[in-house]
Amino acid sequence: MGMLTVISWLVSTVLVAAVDLQSSGDSYTPRSCNSPIYCDGPLLKTVQLAQLYPDSKTFVDMPTKNPEDQVMQAFNALGQNPSVDAIQSFVNANFLDAGYELEPFNFTVEPLTWLDRVDDIIYREWLEDVHEFWTELAFNFNTAKLCDGCVSSTLPVKNPFIVPGGRFREFYYWDSFFVIQGLLLGDIDDMARNMIENFLDFVDTYGFMPNGARIYYLNRSQPPFLTQMVKLYFEKTNDVDFLKKALPVLDKEYVFWLDNTTVTIRKNGERYRLNHYNVHNESPRPESYVDDYNTVVNGTHFSLLEQVSLFSDLATGAETGWDYSSRWSKIKDYSPDLLRTLDTRSIVPVELNALLWSMETTLADWHDTYGTEDRRKTKRQGEYYRKQASQRLHAMDVLLWDEAQASFFDFNLTSVEKNSEYTPANLFPFWLGAVPERVLRSKPTLEKVFDLTYDTLAKYPGILTTSTHNTTQQWDFPNGWPPLQYVALQAMFNVDEWLGDTKFAPLAQVLAERNVATTFCSWYSTGGSLPGVLNQLPNTTDSGHIFEKFDVLSLDSAGSGGEYTVQVGFGWTNGVIIWMFDMFTNLTAPNCNSTTTYPLPPL
Ligand SMILES: *[C@@H]1O[C@H](CO)[C@@H](O)[C@H](O)[C@H]1NC(C)=O
Ligand SMILES: *[C@@H]1O[C@H](CO)[C@@H](O)[C@H](O)[C@H]1NC(C)=O
Ligand SMILES: *[C@@H]1O[C@H](CO)[C@@H](O)[C@H](O)[C@H]1NC(C)=O
Ligand SMILES: *[C@@H]1O[C@H](CO)[C@@H](O)[C@H](O)[C@H]1NC(C)=O
Ligand SMILES: *[C@@H]1O[C@H](CO)[C@@H](O)[C@H](O)[C@H]1NC(C)=O
Ligand SMILES: *[C@@H]1O[C@H](CO)[C@@H](O)[C@H](O)[C@H]1NC(C)=O
Ligand SMILES: *[C@@H]1O[C@H](CO)[C@@H](O)[C@H](O)[C@H]1NC(C)=O
Ligand SMILES: *[C@@H]1O[C@H](CO)[C@@H](O)[C@H](O)[C@H]1NC(C)=O
Ligand SMILES: *[C@@H]1O[C@H](CO)[C@@H](O)[C@H](O)[C@H]1NC(C)=O
């Protein structure tokens, strides 16, 4: 095909398919945040800048005590420049506690059926506890508790759900994939299905999957994991009816990513299409109001246009799920100005394109097998997704793949070059299979795929670091995050399978040992105990915390930095732990003293 043909083919398939997919569901009308209390406007600004609470998220999670119009009237009656005391009295008189409408969802779980496979007695008992933690993280929204005309920032849902924990009092998009993985391994299939149904309802209602279940998350999404969730559920249950119901909704989500986040890249006379995260926003994120205000407005000299651009890059950074990271900033090392140089929309991230490729190939297969009764339409949809996948893989190969380093890298739209930063996000294609045939068939290349990962793991005693830059941002060194360990391990399993070998099994074993030990030891050092098996440390007062992230410089501490204090709970950490015990049955609980190390095997 000549280049012109390629372009017109691309344009026509995109248009044909968009029309085709849209006509299969409701009309496509993404909705955004528009409440005068929880989204934007003088009330939000006045209350948030008064800093009544240490975390801006507290106020926007408080439902009103009075009908919305009365609240607005009471606010207007405060006049210009009210004192902090007057603002506090206004909030006390008109708002309920944050999370008031959240109701624990009471359920019990059966013991894990495969618990006996875990050899180590301490780990076995601890795993049972982790499995039972789901019962403490399950909630419903009960807005019926509120008065007539009262409002809250929660988005209505039909089913109960699991929250991450801590300040995260609602469910989140990409977190939930790892939660669902843990639920399914624990045979809590109903809850997994409940959660997926809530997501499908959201896509149906809002035209895309918001970042989380709050109105202030309606301006952005998060890494597209919904197809992966449906896949996990379907692989476990074989529920064809469920899949058939989900399929048109997944089509709809795909249209959102295509319409809102596609970029065209011209390089060496060719045009390619890939995706970046892309949120337009003109105001501070309501749940991080003070932070964003201080980043963008307070003490800066940005023009209005520059402010809008930075508000957009901040919201886009939150859409990536990596809020925040040197991946998205021009300054790559510690600086109080780092966030002011956010450049998120200039980056074409590896994992987003790997996830979309997986969506394309998976939806192609599902349309072929489980599409509508109209065979011609079904065939057309299958072919459409396959073409989308193959042009994406070609673009990833040309633009993101580095043959010498046997790695994918993010691509920068401004420099029109890939960068050379190692992060575990580079491994997503090896988890999801978004790897060119040529690479799949090359033993020498596949054998080099984890060289950078190995070097990084060799430097520190803990889990895989998020980046190599110490910026004090959450998604940078020295923090390591459980979902990224999951991706790295899945990638190792796949590459071994493609090699027909067990080359990376020992490395995978050590990474799993480190991840489980880190989670276990930080739980133990914050007071965790197991009756009859493990006594509580004498100097502790809490009863053990499961953290959202970890410090890669040790085997027993929670990570730090970023926008909020480290969270305990924690949904995705639990899910990943349960999965690791399922994959590796002979992990051994350490003493959690400084002598415990997990040296890497030779490669
Ligand atoms: C959400 O988007 C709307 C429409 O673009 C905009 O007016 C509003 O300021 C945005 N709100 C937030 C919280 O990002
Ligand atoms: C704005 O910046 C000043 C100076 O750094 C600081 O004292 C003030 O607290 C900031 N305002 C807010 C709302 O954080
Ligand atoms: C759930 O259990 C709690 C504590 O036992 C109880 O207070 C609450 O009423 C129960 N909720 C429902 C919906 O049954
Ligand atoms: C997606 O793009 C449409 C059209 O530009 C826009 O109206 C909508 O707000 C965008 N949605 C999100 C969540 O950014
Ligand atoms: C993208 O490339 C431009 C031009 O080289 C550079 O100034 C910018 O810092 C890069 N962005 C990121 C996030 O690395
Ligand atoms: C990271 O940088 C911060 C700020 O400069 C510093 O306090 C901290 O010790 C550094 N951490 C590591 C692990 O080097
Ligand atoms: C308790 O003591 C142990 C060693 O004696 C120490 O490693 C740990 O950090 C202490 N924990 C707390 C919460 O102070
Ligand atoms: C655990 O099992 C793996 C393979 O299943 C094996 O390679 C490893 O040596 C075992 N480790 C221990 C401590 O038994
Ligand atoms: C630390 O743990 C090792 C075994 O993992 C044990 O041999 C050693 O005695 C422990 N050291 C201390 C100080 O508790």
Automatic annotation (TrEMBL):
Its EC number is 3.2.1.28. GO terms for molecular function: alpha,alpha-trehalase activity. It comes from the Eukaryota. It comes from Hesseltinella vesiculosa. Keywords: Glycosidase, Hydrolase, Signal. Belongs to the glycosyl hydrolase 37 family. It catalyses: alpha,alpha-trehalose + H2O = alpha-D-glucose + beta-D-glucose. InterPro entries: 6-hairpin_glycosidase_sf, 6hp_glycosidase-like_sf, Glyco_hydro_37, Glyco_hydro_37_CS. One of its GO terms (biological process) is trehalose catabolic process. Residues 1-18 form the signal peptide. Pfam families: Trehalase (PF01204). This is Trehalase.
